[in-house]
Amino acid sequence: MSSSFGTLLRITTFGESHGVGIGVIIDGCPAGLPITTEEIQVALDRRRPGQSDLTTPRKEADQVEVLSGVFRDETTGTPISLLIRNKDQASHDYSHIEHAYRPSHADYTYDVKYGRRDYRGGGRSSARETAARVAAGVVAGKLLAQYGVRAQSYVSQVGAIAVPVGYEQLDLGLIDSNLVRCPHPETAERMAELIRQTRDRHDTVGGLVTGVVQGVPVGLGEPVFDKLHAELGKAMLSINAVKGFEYGSGFAGTLLFGSEHNDAFYTDENGAVRTRTNHSGGIQGGISNGQDIYFRVAFKPVATILQAQATINDQGEEISLAGRGRHDPCVLPRAVPIVDAMTNLVLADMLLRARANKV
Ligand SMILES: Cc1cc2nc3c(=O)[nH]c(=O)nc-3n(C[C@H](O)[C@H](O)[C@H](O)COP(=O)(O)O)c2cc1C
Prior knowledge:
18 strands; binds flavin mononucleotide; Chorismate_synth; 25% helix; alpha+beta; chorismate synthase activity; flavoprotein; five-stranded antiparallel beta sheet; aromatic amino acid biosynthesis; 23% strand; Chorismate_synthase_CS; Chorismate synthase, AroC fold
């Protein structure tokens, strides 16, 4: 079983939802990168539960401790270990699933695969694990910043309510101007209303996060199996509750003819090679072409709803099960920093790998 991700910049996450804590070891980070505990904490605060009435009311402070690899606010080139202790566990909220399988959660598959399961909060299958990724993503983001690369993401759809324009027409500085993390304020209000209505009906709702990476140099990504979009796809699909990933023109591009879809090259006034359109999403042949990278990640309406549902127990008997405790009616606002983190980790790893490609 692997809990590691990345090649040259490699992370290993550990911990369960209701154990002592969760954390990450980051190996391969170059020395001399400026980083502070506060910077990591800012990112964790964007993911933490209980941040607004649109998320789970669980109140986890998610305070990060830097155990190693950083000295006087700079990386030392040695493994960086980050620990987040679990504080607000309410394990009794999960006693009803000790022997029962929540529909569309990971209880059944974990039980059959391992023959045992930490049912409290979902154990390792809990999205709490993603806090460790968010912490590691800050370190990767600092590496990218040294090269002028910046990844951002935002909520572009909740249920059927979608931002009506592309990222180029949005002010991405507005992402954190509202609780939904949607930089289109009128749409954000309608999304928030839908999330509240869904919560009050004891249901859940899904949606889309759009990712954008700007300032990417030409040449990130490997030509065959580790294509840049393949790595991004794996990174995004490894996030809990993700059902789909598309980049550039994605599935909609299949409706165009080649003559409409091809991105014409030109040389701009500074002599830089550019393309007039960007259906490629900044990636050609698995390698970044210097244009913006953009992609979309689909999140399902998450499994735990506070309504009775038909399921079975671990004896195979049919039972009725209602969710208990404090859950997210819509994970999209909290998913944004997780998408940012996974984007940073892929791009930073590819940047180091690209530097190893040529003498
Ligand atoms: C930020 C975030 C918060 C989540 N919170 C919940 C939750 O409160 N209740 C729930 O049932 N699932 C939640 N999930 C999703 C589950 O972790 C996930 O659906 C489960 O592990 C099964 O995996 P799968 O949906 O990827 O197949 C959350 C996911 C994310 C990204």
